[in-house]
Amino acid sequence: MSKAISTEPISFHVVMSGTRVPFTVRKNARARRVWIKMEDHSGLVLVLPRWASPSRAAEFMKLHQDWVLKRWNEREERLAKAAPPMGSGRTIVYRGRPISLRVRNCACAAPSVEWHRDHLLVQVPNHDESPLSEILETSFREKAKEIFMRRAESLSGLLSLYPKAIQVRDQKTRWGACTGRGTLTFNWRLILAPPAVLDYVVVHELCHLRHANHGRRFWELVGSVCPSFAAQRSWLRENGALLRTAP
After folding, report:
1. What whole-number distance in Å separates Cα of residue 117 and Cα of residue 74?
2. Where in the sequence is the domain holding 205, given as residue range(s)?
3. What CATH number did the domain enclosing 232 receive?
4. Which of 41, 60, 81 is the last residue of a domain?
5. What is the dihedral of CA 239, 242, 244, 245, to 10 degrees?
6. With pLDDT > 70 as the criterion, what percentage of the chain qualifies?
7. What's the CA angle centered on 150, arms 197 and 166, to 5 degrees?
8. 74 located within any domain
9. Residue 181 to residue 117: CA distance in whole angstroms
10. DSSP one-letter code for 51
11. CB atoms within 10 A of CB 149
12. Closest by alpha carbon to 145, among 178, 162, 110, 170?
């Protein structure tokens, strides 16, 4: 009987040009080579095939030192510019712009969130121990469902493509998805992005109702409604990590 390969991630670090760079090592039984990638949540990840030993992790990383340092520094710069997590400051981001956050303790029975044009008012019961970040995320998810339903209804008419259902989730690696049965799923964090970015993702998934691939006809259909889709894709690539730092 062959020995099972552990797929549990292992944390390592390597020093490059005086910089301590942490990374995660993962085994993948189907991998045919060693590769390095940058993930929004985990940071640098070294993927090893069956034959590679984790003891050589630092050696593998140093073989690609220039690429590793470039990606590491870029991610550190993005995170340094990120807004504070929800609830840790008095400003939060909504629809690509900062709005003020006001928190008030009161004699109410349960936490509530009021949405105003230029601010968010959170009322919390006296002695309530619920983390503010959890209260905000619950409200943001509800707001996201409302916005996605409204934008999908509007954009569906332009494409004559209508989903069977719309769901809002917290996907770790995707901004949207389309099932073969016509259900569209969106990442709630997109309501932190500018409206044009959210609309692009909605159009993208609506177009998958007609084209299940990313071929030429698919992108032509996307461009017919969202001609600036390349700019929106670039925005997500550059800022996606910041959206995912929100709790």
Report:
1. 33
2. 133-244
3. 3.30.2010.10
4. 81
5. 170
6. 91
7. 85
8. yes
9. 37
10. T
11. 12
12. 170
Across the strands, what pairs with 101? 120
What does pTM read for this prediction?
0.67
Sign (positive or negative) of CA dihedral 227, 161, 164, 143: positive
Structural domains counted in the chain: 2
Which of 61, 81, 101 corresponds to the end of one domain?
81
pLDDT tens figures, 184-238: 999 999 999 999 999 999 999 999 999 999 999 999 999 999 999 999 999 998 8
| pLDDT of res. 90 | 77
Amino acid identity, position 105: N
The closest alpha carbon to 96, from 83, 86, 84, 109, belongs to 83
Give first-to-last CA distance, the chain, whole Å.
44
- pLDDT at residue 3 greater than cutoff 50: no
Q: Determine contact, residues 226/203, Cβ cutoff 8 Å.
A: yes
The answer as to whether 168 is a domain residue is yes
What confidence score (pLDDT) does residue 88 get? 54
Amino acid present at 34:
V
- Residue 26 counted as domain residue: yes
Residue 1 belongs to some domain of the structure: no
Backbone angles phi, psi at 28, to 5 degrees: -135, 110
pLDDT of residue 53: 85
- pLDDT tens figures, 82-133: 555 555 567 888 999 888 888 888 777 888 899 988 889 888 887 777 788 8
Class of residue 116 by CB neighbours under 10 A (exposed 0-12, middle 13-18, buried 19+):
exposed
